[in-house]
Amino acid sequence: MLEYTSNHSLPVAHHLSLVAGRAPDANAVGALLPPSGTAPKRLKSASHRIAYLEDDPDFALLIRLMGKRLGHIVTTFHCPTEAMAAINLYPQGFDIFMTDYQMPLGDGAEVVQRVKRAHQHLGCAVISNDERIMSRADVRALKIATAIKPNCLQQFELLLDLIDATSN
Predict the structure, then answer these.
(1) Is 5 in a helix, a strand, or coil?
(2) In sequence order, what are the residues at sequence separation of 6 or more whose Cβ sits closer than 8 angstroms to the Cβ of residue 23?
(3) Using alpha carbons only, what angle is made at residue 106 by residues 111 and 141, rounded to the nearest 5 degrees?
(4) What angle is formed at CA 10 by the lines to CA 101 and CA 69, rounded to 5 degrees?
(5) Can you give the pLDDT of all 168 residues of the chain as single tens digits?
(6) Model-level pTM?
(7) Are 104 and 54 in contact (CB under 8 A)?
(8) Which CA distances in Å does 158 have to 25, 39, 41, 119, 151?
(9) Contact 159, 127 (CB under 8 A)
């Protein structure tokens, strides 16, 4: 597991679309944006243990800091083999697995398939800065949460709610 610190400023976004791919032929694509000024409710757990696979060290740091701020434990990984080894070694150490879709060392959809096959208890999500990824057949077939990468606390909390809602 790699630790990373940075002096770069953290990015801020103004919107987030979250899509639940419940079935490959599902037409129910919805945005989960609460009314302004309202906080989303947690659906299952007040605290999550998250394994996050991300090749961008700055974004991995952002997710780890947002998770910590919200009371979650986020362990970041920068390559698929590292993430799989940790999850296989200590499967009960995590309840959520999130991954970037496009990485130089692996395809996010393929990594999620392997994780889900070996560890059905994990809620999973594929996230990307490219919203076209969410409509790809290989991603929709996974029947997991898919989302634009969150850049603020409220978006991160909404992503966790979506993972909770799609993980059964």
Answers:
(1) coil
(2) 140, 143
(3) 40
(4) 85
(5) 333 333 333 332 222 233 333 332 222 223 333 334 444 344 444 689 999 999 999 999 999 999 999 999 999 999 999 999 999 999 899 999 999 988 888 788 889 889 989 998 899 999 998 888 777 887 788 888 888 999 999 999 999 999 988 876
(6) 0.71
(7) no
(8) 24, 9, 9, 23, 11
(9) yes
Structure tokens at 107: 């395809």
CA angle 48, 53, 56 (to 5 degrees): 120
With 0-12 / 13-18 / 19 or more C-beta atoms within 10 angstroms meaning exposed / middle / buried, residue 160 is buried
Q: Which two tokens stand for residue 161?
A: 């709610």
Q: State the Cα–Cα distance between residues 148 and 31, nearest whole angstrom.
A: 11
Residue type for 95, please?
Answer: D
CATH of domain 43-166: 3.40.50.2300
Residue 166: half-sphere exposure toward Cβ, Cα within 13 Å:
28
